[in-house]
Fold this protein.
Amino acid sequence: MSVDFEITQNIAVITIDNPPVNALSTHIRAGLVKAVEQINCDTNIQGVVLTGAGRIFIGGADIKEFGKPPREPFLPDAIDILENCRVPTVAAINGAALGGGLEVALGCRFRVTGVAAKTGLPEVKLGLIPGAGGTQRLPRLIGAVKAGEMITTGKPIPADQALALGVVDAVYADNLLENAISFMRDKLKRGDMGVALSTITKLPSPDATNFSKLEAKTKARARGQLSPIKALEAVRAAGELPFRQGLKRERELFMQCMESPQRAGLIHSFFAQRQVAKIPGLDMSNTRPIKSVGILGAGTMGVGITLAFLAGGYNVSLLDVDAKALDTGMERITKTLQSNLAKGRISKDSLKKQSGNLSAVCDMEALGNSDLIIEAATENLEIKKSIFRDLDRIAKPGAILASNTSYLDINILARETRRQTKRQGDVIGMHFFSPANIMKLLEVVRTDTVGDDVLATIMALGKSIGKITVLSGVCDGFIGNRILKSYRKQADYMVLDGAEPHDIDRVMKAFGMAMGPFAVSDLAGIDIGYFNRRREDETRPKRERYSRIADLLYEQGRLGQKSSAGYYRYEQGSRAPIIDPATTEIIAAERKRLGITPRPFCDDEIRERILYALINEGAKILDEGIAARALDIDMVYVHGYGFPAYHGGPMFYADTIGAKNIYEKITKFAKDDPYFWQASPLLKTLAQSGGTFKAFCA
């Protein structure tokens, strides 16, 4: 862990060597400053190449130092010293240059990369903005609009895009260090000393109109998140203030983000995302080899799951006994792959490989040699039981059998596999979210009999296909849909009592949710909820309130976006919801039938009823052991249900309010509906003891 320094024919090579990601730890910053000071004292040195050891240039700040007081030399000062080096400097960016890594590279006069390099300023994802001059130097290099887009999205860009934008000066296919040294020698020969970005007084290609459009776009995309807005304020300052004043403004805005509770939420999300797939007490290295995957069902879910595994490099066999459905599914897969190629998401070689790894089969026997078989049939228990009986007969010994069910009891399916010895230990739930090739969340459902090696295999497999993989126990709806059902009921009750669907959706979007509950129903399809409620009719408690409004919409053919009408109306080809008087009439008629006099709901009450119902059900799930940790619930809701990451997830957010406050409000709500508002025993305990859900994240 050091900053290495050597001289090659009057060119100094500084190498950052701090595995695994060459983070900018205190001793690395000190080593960089010391190296520049040596160069400034050696008149034989004519130029400098700065690079990283291994496969990464500089991965950014040292996460081990998060939350600790910063120590000198501070990164802005180290970059300032680098930028004012006596001789010209070139950053040879191998691998990633992210956050402070790119800011260091911007402190050099030139930048070159390898073809696999990525550059970016992802600080907004942690609730911050670049704090070492990134918001001031990057706009001076590529203009405020392009820099603003990079900084506010936080998305790393590949080498070819960095070259096109002007972030880097050259891209080399191989021998990066040698080419960087040659690049520097050529610049010296031409007398091109480069320009320190801090000396640029006028931004390139100023465009006030497009910058205003970017501001509007950023505000809409942020959905209440502070850091992208503050980042754009800093970028604007780069065009309005001299460099040193701009740095001061950047620091002020950086500190505003540091002091925001959103930063704590995003930091929690950052670490929870990395921790969630590690199951305490489970040997994560004890896995089975998975090379071939069979997908049973060529509908929407089956197609999405197939695409996810193809992107992960697996051989996939897609099965459907309906030849027409199979042809349609294969056509959708081909169309999606071609679209991904056209949009630059995959290469021609990747398209060829993924297409070659895919086969269509119409006979279940063809799945006999698959290492993993995922059933993605219709949500009907008897149909799924029949499938698992067939799979028990067909699948090879040791194959893992998974169901993509959203609600049903996986233990029942496991019990259908009785012929093969130990087969029940091979059955597990894999609940993907639609569209499965896009949505990040994968709920892995642990049966009572599943083998530890099967569980470890599937948790690792989820990561290999780019999923945030969360472990759940067996219950109706698992973690995500069980909680959704609870707060969705509360939304329905509020509508019966006087609130309007569009007001509830508006309040939850203002909180930061991607969509409100009624817009989500229209997107998913009102028929989905209708059939699930019919499944529950015989077991629904008599004391429980029941809203018929969604059933009435279904009976009138209002299925949501798919029929251009649900809770909202939709114009042809548009997903924008329009308030529909027809829905208002249906609601009013149902209130009249029930003898309900509607009352007003303020925004605070709407938000509290939705969120406290969500949190209370999450506490019950945690108390019952369906989720082992509070962070599991947080990650399900952040990555599967649009809960704002800057609030950290529902259980993290609950701690910011306080269990006592939530419990007292639930007790108040219970006066009107004691059956629904039954406080979780865990929530009550935490309220009385002053405890937090954070204690359940170990």
In short: The two ends are 30 Å apart (CA to CA). The chain has a mean pLDDT of 93.
